[in-house]
Structure formats: structure tokens, C-alpha cells
Amino acid sequence: MLLFICSWALAGLFVWRLLGRYRNPRNTNRVVYFVVFLGLLLPFSLTFLLPMDVASTRYEQCMLPQIVPCQKPWLYVAPSIRGFSWLIVYWTTFGLSWLVAPFLQGYVMAGEFDMFGKALYSLRINLIFYALTLAVLALVVFCLVVGMGSQMGTGQAIVAMLMAISNAGGLLAVMAFLGGGLVQVPRRLWQRSDAKKELLRLEARAVQVKEESLDSEANLAQLRQELQLLPIRARHRPELKSYVDRILLEQDYADEDLGSGAHFNSQRDPQPAISLSYIVSLNYRIQEARSDRARTAWQWQRLCQRAFHLQDICANEQLSFDSCWSSSLQGLPDESPRWKRQLAWNWHVRLVPILFKGLALIAVLLSLSVLWSELTLALSSNARLSLIRILLEAEHSSSFILLLFLFYLAICTYSSFLQLKVFSFFRLVPRHTDEKSLLFFAAYINRLVFPLGYNYLTLIEGSSSTQKLQTQFSLVMGTMDLVPLLGRYFNLYAPLTLALFVGLIAWRLDHRILDLCNRCFGRRTELLDGDEEESETEVSAGRDLINLARRIAERSQESHIPSDRFYSKSWLPWQSKNINSTHQLLT
After folding, report:
1. Are 252 and 292 contacting, i.e. CB atoms less than 8 angstroms apart?
2. 433 — phi, psi (to 5°)?
3. Is 23 helix (H, G, I), strand (E, B) or coil?
4. 433 - beta bridge partners?
5. Three-class secondary structure of residue 426 per DSSP
6. pLDDT tens-digit profile of 61-78?
7. Among 281, 378, 549, 551, which has the highest number of CB atoms less than 10 A from its own CB?
8. pLDDT digits over 133-142, tens only?
9. Residues 259-312: tens digit of each pLDDT
């Protein structure tokens, strides 16, 4: 019981640190923070709840014949506690992902000025979404009922089929994100071990990041012009004056975000006709623009800081073995003890690359083990060829193997999902993630919990219903075997889906396809890893931008100016409408 409580405490501490990294502490409501915290805690609780459930069930089944002595695992938890925990997790994740988080997401995205208006807007857009979802689901159920005939005649069978459809859709999503994580986690660890190539990738991205900052500043300046004209345009609509005053107050008209870059032209004759819906839309667009400006400014600041550190590592690599760490910007000062500077040099230059390469090799072995275990499910329904099952059958190592592989599966799936970018609306940015993005990721990550657990159990016991462990997880989740297309047969298609995504991402075909689509619509994408030779112009321009920022930072440091000033808009012509690209900043 103590281990069970400590596991929840560790998971809560991890989620608290994760939220501290991504949320914006100034703009995150307490209710939203609590919902997001709970929405992230439950998915990460899978990493210890399911191993406890499997280890406890194996021990209980071993005790039934009472022929051979069975060793009680250190992960053992009573069946009543396991069953109650899974019921709480299942219905809480369901409520968060389908009811609470979508409602709050619509609420925070509303541009209305009162709680009642925000709530109505959220209800309206969610009802439209649910209506479309139910229509599609009803069509799928009707087709399956017609195809299955009398087997789907009872209400209980239809409910089981709905759960099977939900789990099948979630399992496809898990295969997609897991396939990305199995490749990206080892690749990213290996890339972090090479400072020169990592610096080259940052230099290639610098131009795009800077241009995004310029675009966000220009968008905010344009919205400020609309805000300046708002009182004049509302002079013929006295009933809107209270809303105009409120939007000026809420957007803090006098602050630095709205106080630069645009000038009101008194000779301009604006259109007098405006409506309440226009004011609401303007309020929402300004909120989004300010959030986007803060996000892009932080991304540029973070890129510069990371590039400065990598430049220092590359410079220190040229020194002899017994040298001390030296940097014109950061690191230990020259008056620090020599042993501290030598320790810093050995850590950054020698130990960190070895550490990342070692972790990358371990991740490669785990990825190959998971991929082999998944693909062999199509050949053997009882998972006899699964490396995970083979390792579990070894003595005194089952509990550790249960934790290790599920933890790695969760890392690959969740890390790939949390890196998802849904156009420019939903993305996770450290310290600058808005509320709607936090709620979006909290809602959808909850929909991956039970499909990921189902896939993990399949790797251990196979897809045959007679071979599966009767865990409390399985009793709560139900069965997918009622509909063969979504049950036994689906377990043959899922590994092939995983192999498809692994192949696409391993050969970077996903980036090629995305780049082709963006070019068709006239948009640009980030530089692909390994394409530095094809983008020498962007790499050179990005290097010049980073070097310019470093020189300004060094001057600011010598003049005792706060370090965040050299990232701000004060030293660049942010509002210039004649700038077509970042390259003109260097001329």
C-alpha cells in the first residue's frame, strides 16, 4: 500500500514539474490548471498501475493451483484497490476528455466579456462537434449492425461494440505516435551528443524563428490600429460604448505590447458601422496576437541561448585535455576555482556526449525489442515470439521488465504526442503555452491511456482471448473481440500500421510529404534534419543572426544591462513594413 501511495506521489510530482515547464504562470486560470494537472496525472499513472496489475494478477493465478511455491512480487496490490483505481481512472479520463476539457477549451477561446456569454459560446461549438461525431458514429454502428446481423441485436452488444470502436480508434492513434517515438527518441538522443551538428540545425532554423517573431509583431501592430479606431467607429453606437471601454481596459491599452509600432492617422475616415460580434472577434484576436508575440519572442530567446552554449562547447573542444571552461557570456567566471572550471569543461566536452550516446544506444535496443514484439503479433496470436514475454519469463526480473517496457512505451507515445503541432492553434511551448493548448493536449492524451494499456497487455499475452490475463484493467476496459474486424483481425492490422509509421519517420518521408503539401499551399516548413547542404543560404543567414545577437549580448553584459534586453524588440526594427525577410536585417 505504501508503494502504491508513493507511486501516485511521484507521478504527481512529475506532472507538476511538467506543467511548470510548459504553462504560462501569469495567464493560467486555477481551474484550468487543476483540470490539466488531473488530465496529465491519470495518463502517467498508467506507467505504474498497469505493471502492478499484471504482476499481482500473475501472482494470484500462480497461487490458484498451489502446486509450486510462488514468490509474492514487490509490486503486489490487492484486487479491490486495483479495480477501484481503474474505475476511477476510466471514468475520470472519459469525463475530462469528452466533457470538462472541451467545455473549458471553448470557454477560454471565447471573446465574450462575461461568463454567461463565454459559457454559451462553448456550449454552442461543443454541441456542433458532438452532433457531427454522433452522426458519424451512428453511421458506423449501423453498417456494423447490418453486417453482423443477429450477433449485434442486444443493447449490451452494441455498448461493447461502441467501446471496441473507441479503443480501435485510440489504438490506431497509439500506433502512430508510438511509431514516431520509437524512431525519434533514439535519434534525438544521438543528435544531442554532437554539438557541431546541433548548432548547424539551430542556425538553419534561426531565420524562420526570427521571421515568425517579425510576423507576430506586425500582426499585433495591425490589431492595435484597429483598436485605436474602435472608439471612433463606435461613436454612432452608444449601446456599444461599455463594450469598447471594457476591451480597452482588458487589453491594457497603455502597456508596452500595445504602445509601440503603430500610429493613428487622424485624417483617416473609418467605417462607422460596427457590431458587438466585431468587438468580440477583435478581443479574441488581440488575445491570440499577444500570446503569439510572447511565444515567438521566447522561442527566439531560447534558440539564441542554446546556440550560445553550443558555440562555447565547440570552442572549448579545441582546447587541450586539462583546460578550463571559458565563455564570453556564460559559465563560470575566471575568478572561480580552477577545479570547478576543469570540472565544467570535462562535463560539457567529454561526459555529456558519452552520456547521450549511451542513452541513445539503450533506446535503440528498446525500440528494436518493442518493434519486434509488435510485428510478431501478426505471426503468433499468443505472443510466444515477443521479446517482452520472453524476458518476463526469466526469474527475478519480471517486475523490472514490466516497469521498464511500459515506461519506454509511454515515453515514446507521450513525447511524440506532446510534440504535435496543430497548425498554429495548439502547440506546447515552454513557459508560454496558452490555456486552450494545455486543455487540448490534456483532453486528447487521456484518450490514449486505455489503448496504450491494451497494446501493452497484447505484447505480454498475445491477442488470443483465452491466453490473456484476467487483470482488473481488462475487466474495466471490456473486450474488443465481439467485432472481429475491431478485435482479433485488428490486432493483425495494428502492427502493420506501426511498421508503416516507423518506416515513414525513419526515412523522413513524413517531412518530405509535409514539405510538399506546404509548397503546394505556398507555405514553408522547418529545415529537415540532414538537409543542411541544401540550405546553405539559410544556414549562413541564421549564423549571422545568432552572431549578431551574441555581440549585442556581450555588449549588454559589459554595460551591466539585464540579459533579457538583447532579445527584445528594442534593438530591431520590428514594426517596419518594408522588411520582407530577415536577411535585410543584416544589410
Report:
1. no
2. -85, 125
3. strand
4. 23
5. strand
6. 888 766 567 788 888 889
7. 549
8. 888 878 877 7
9. 444 444 444 444 556 788 888 888 888 888 988 998 999 999 999 999 999 999
Shortest CA distance to 37 belongs to which of 11, 62, 60? 11
Start-to-end Cα distance in the chain:
67
Residue whose grid cell is 493451483: 65
Cell triple for 91: 471514468
| Cα(492)–Cα(482) distance, integer angstroms | 16
User: Is-contact 328 351, C-beta < 8 A?
Assistant: no
Output the nine-digit C-alpha cell for 472.
Answer: 482488473
Q: Any residues with CB less than 8 A from the CB of 262 and at least 6 apart, and which?
A: 221, 222, 224, 225, 228, 575
CA–centroid distance for 214 within its chain: 25
CA 461/CA 389 separation, integer angstroms? 7
- The total number of residues written for the chain in this structure: 587
pLDDT at residue 318 is higher than 50: yes
Residue with cell 467545455: 103
Q: Is 207 helix (H, G, I), strand (E, B) or coil?
A: helix
pLDDT digit string, tens, across residues 371-380: 998 888 777 6
**Other CB atoms within 10 A of residue 230 CB:** 19
The answer to whether residue 447 scores a pLDDT higher than 70 is: yes
The residue to which cell 546553405 is assigned: 536
Listed residue (147, 178, 142, 180) closest to 162, CA to CA: 142
User: What single letter denotes the amino acid at residue 13?
Assistant: L
Q: Do 490 and 480 meet the contact criterion of CB atoms below 8 Å apart?
A: yes
Closest by CA position to 424, among listed 443, 439, 437: 437
- Residue 58 to residue 326: CA distance in whole angstroms: 56
